Amino acid sequence: LTATVNPDFGQVEADPAELNLTAFETFFPEQRPFFVEDARQFDFGLNCGLYSCSRETLFYSRRIGRSPELLGTYGDAGSPTATRILGAAKITGRTGGFGFGALGALTQRVGGPHGSTLEPAARFGVLRATEDLRGGETGLGVMLTGMGRDLDVSSAPYLHHEAWSGGVDFHHRFQKQYLLHGSAHWSRVTGSPAAIAATQRNPVHNYQRPDGAIALDTTRTALTGDDEQLAFDKLGGAIQFQAIYTRRSPGFEANDLGYLRLADQQTAYTWLGLVLKRPTRWYRDLTWNLNSWIWATTAGLVTGRAVNTNVHVTLPNLWRLGAWVSFDGLGATFCDRCARGGPALRQDRSISTWFDVRGDERRRLMPWVTVTTGSADAGRSSSYSVAATARLNASSRLSASLGVRLAVNHNHTQWYGNPVDSSGRTHYTFAALDQRTVGVTVRADYALSTTLSLQGYLQPFASWGSYRDVRELSAPRAAFYADRFAPYVPPPGSPAGVRARQLNANVVLRWEYRPGSTLFVVWTQARQGFGDVPGTGGALQNLGGIFDLRADNTFLVKLSYWFD
Fold this sequence. Notes:
Distance between the termini: 12 Å
Low-confidence stretches: none
Shape: globular
Mean pLDDT: 92
Number of helices: 4
Structural class: mainly beta
C-alpha cells in the first residue's frame, strides 16, 4: 500500500526534446517514482503482440498531473504549466495466482487569467485484476478506469465531464509452444455537445472527413466505442510466428486516462521468424524476421499495406548488429489523417531502412550507432538520420554517456493548414518542408557512497526548416502524384518555416538516509523557443542560440519516508 501527497517529482532525466509536426500526440514514458513502482500490475496494452506492440493503453499515468489542457486556450506567460496532484494512493499485490491493483488520485483546479479554468479539479480511478491458471499457462484479466471533472462555464465546451473505459483479456498456452491470446475493450465519454463534437473532430477520430463513412453529429453528449484483438503465436523452436487481427470502432476514446493514437481502424499483422539460439563460431544468436501488415478503416478504406524483413545478430565478441528494410504503400493505399479532417490522400510506395551497431556493454567504452533512411512520394520526399552514442563505464562509481543525433528531412507532403476563404470554401494545403535537426544528450552518474549519488543530464536540441511549393488538394485519390494537387498561393502572413530550440538540464542529489527513505535535492533549467520563421545557419549556430533564450530555473527538495 502506497500513499503520497503532491507526487509531481520526476527523475533526473527530462522528456526528450522534439518538434512534432504530425497529427498525433507524442508518447513520453512515466518517470515519477510513485507511478513507476508496480506499474506492470496496471499494464493493459491496446493493439499489442509479443513481437510488435504500440504504446496505446487503457491507463497512461501521465494523464494525472498533466500540463493544463486549456493552457493554449486561456493561458498566458505567467500561467502554471503543471497540474498539482493533491494526493494519490494505490494498493497492489498477489496471492497465489491472483494479482490485483487499485489506484486513485485527486488533482487541483488550475486557474487562469480573468477567472478562467485551465484544468478543472478531477478524480481518477483504476482497477486491475488478473488470475493465473495452470501455473501461468492460462490467464484471465479485467480492468476498469474512470475519470470525472468538476467543469465550469469556461471548461465545459472543451473537456469531457466523465470518461470510462474497461476491458477483459486472456491468454492460453498449449503444447508448450503455442499461444492464443486476445482482449476486448469499451469506452464511454460524456460532456457538452461542443466538447463531444471536438472529440469527433480530433485527429484520433476525424468524423468530419468529407469523404468518410462516418458523420459528424454536433448534438451528441456522449460517445461510445469498442476495440477487439485476437492473436495466435508459435513461441518455440527455430521457426516462430505470430498473427494478429484488431478492430477498433470510430467512437472508441481512451485519452482522458489512457493513450490512444487512432480509432476507426482495422489491422492485420503477420510475423515469421527464424530464431537461432545455439552459439556457433559465427554468432551467439541470430534472428531473421519476415513481416507483413495491412491497415484499414472499419469501412474498408486501406490506409497501409507493407512488408518488412529484418535481421539481428549477436557476434561472439558480444557486439550486436541489426538491419531492416520496409516497403509500404503497396497497391492503392490512402492516408485518411494527412489532411487533418480533409479527404483521404492517395499514397505512393515508400521505402525505409535501418542499420544498427552496438558494442559490448561489458567494456569500459561502449559505442552505439544507428543510421536510418527513407524515401516516399515517388522520390520527392526523403529522410536521413544518424544517431551516435558513446557510453563510458569509468569505474564502479562513475558512468557517463554522450549522444549526438543529426537528421535531414525533405517532406514534400507536409500538411500546411486548412484555411477557409471568404466564400466558405476550405482549402486543404500541403507544402514541401526542408528540415534539419540536431540534438545532443549528455548523462553522468557518480556514486559518492552506497547511499549518496549525484546525477546530471543535459540535452540541447534544435530543429529548423523552411516551406516551399505550397499546394492544395484537387483530386486527392488520383493515381499520379502530380494530379492530386493544384497550385495555391497562401495569404500574407502565412508561416515561412518552422524553428524549435530547447534545452533541458537537470542535476539531482539523492541520499538514502535510511533504508527505503530518500531525500532528493534537485535543480533544473529549461529553455525553449518555437516559431514559424525559418532558422538560419548551421547546427552549431542554432544550438548556440539556445543559450540566448529565457531560462526557467527550478529548485526543489523531495523527501520520502518508509514506515517499516
